[in-house]
Amino acid sequence: MLPCHIAIIMDGNGRWARARKLPRVAGHRAGMKTLRTIVHHAINIGLKWLTLYAFSSENWSRPADEVQCLLSLLKLFIYHDLTKLHANNVRVHVIGNRSNLAKDIIALLHQAEMLTEKNTGLDLVVAFNYGSRNEIVRAVRKIAIDIISGKITGDDITDTLLASYLDTAKIPDPDLIIRTSGEMRLSNFLLWQAAYSEFSFVPCFWPDFSVSDFEETVASFYARERRFGNLKRSDSIREVAL
Ligand code: IPE
Ligand code: IPE
Ligand code: MG
User: Fold this and answer.
1) What is the pLDDT of residues 84-130, one digit of tens each?
2) What is the pLDDT of residues 153-181, one digit of tens each?
């Protein structure tokens, strides 16, 4: 069975470009092609949830022209691909902090979510201006406001309640998190939600990540035994027998 939710940290665009003596923005453009290929593959295989880390809350610290390129690519993706995604029954969700984004981008993100909200195929989550610590801080602030207004009390705070205040409130935790480019870190991605995720760190740069790399990674997920703090199935049967 397919994992229900795959999340991808699409990393290595800059190094892909450097290896070809191209500017970093050429890497981002090439990365966009891979993104389209993987989204369409996810639609074809009937994956339920796919989350893509497109721009982190820390990526603003990059040179202005690179940030501009990444923002333009997001806009282009929505302008050009939204109709096709909608026709393919894809529902678009966006997670991340919208408060400091330009008005035209906020409007586009909203448009993508509204247009596709009744779709029932792939749920495509775009993590844009996303940082997990910021997400948790925003959630805690909202909880504080609800405590002050008397809507909830301190005793109501449980992990389920906190999760319901996150951007990912209605999104299942990722089963598998893939990161390309050989880096083995989360870079502020889904820190809360990844508590029991499986990880795959793939050596190739994102623009080189192919459908067969994707398939291979998913195949390796099947071989894993997820225990969620419990024992291996065979071990618990043996314990009962003893
Ligand atoms: C990932 O590629 C894309 C974003 C972070 C938006 P990078 O731009 O991080 O590429 P490297 O890691 O520098 O090679
Ligand atoms: C993570 O990659 C963010 C995205 C893929 C959007 P980065 O390239 O920004 O992460 P670091 O700086 O290598 O940790
Ligand atoms: Mg990177």
Assistant:
1) 999 999 999 999 999 999 999 999 999 999 999 999 999 999 999 99
2) 999 999 999 999 999 999 999 999 999 99
3-class SS of residue 176:
strand
pTM: 0.96
Lining residues, ligand 2, CB within 6 Å? 9-11, 53-56, 59, 183, 185, 187
Residue 188 φ/ψ region, left for φ over 0, alpha for ψ in the -120 to 50 degree band, beta for the rest: left
Q: In angstroms, how far is the first alpha carbon of the chain from the final one? A: 33
Tell me if 14 CB under 6 Å of ligand 1: yes
DSSP codes, 190-215: STTTTTT-EEEE--S-GGG--HHHHH
Would you say the CB of residue 180 lies under 6 angstroms from ligand 1?
no
174 neighbors 194 (Cβ within 8 angstroms) = yes
